[in-house]
Automatic annotation (TrEMBL):
This is Ribbon-helix-helix domain-containing protein. The lineage of its organism: Bacteria, Bacillati, Actinomycetota, Actinomycetes, Kitasatosporales. InterPro entries: Ribbon_hlx_hlx. GO terms for biological process: regulation of DNA-templated transcription. It comes from the Bacteria.
Amino acid sequence: MSPPTLPAFPYPVQQGRCTVLDMSRHVTIRLDEDFHERLKARAAALGTTVTALITEVTERELDEDRKDFLSGIEEFADHWGYFQERFGN
């Protein structure tokens, strides 16, 4: 007789203080006190956590589509004078 199989649990499982959604890595960084206080204040003002804020900013920095978009803006800015001259305000 085979052991019973448990059905997949579709919701996050609480384990201690951590919500397990997917496997993730812990990263330790060192911040000076002033920077950490500023980071906590910004996260609180945005209604999020320090971890979520750092994750969001890091993901945004690594987003290749965003980099392509920003480089397109720079190219457009280089030709802004011509655009205004040709098409007006």
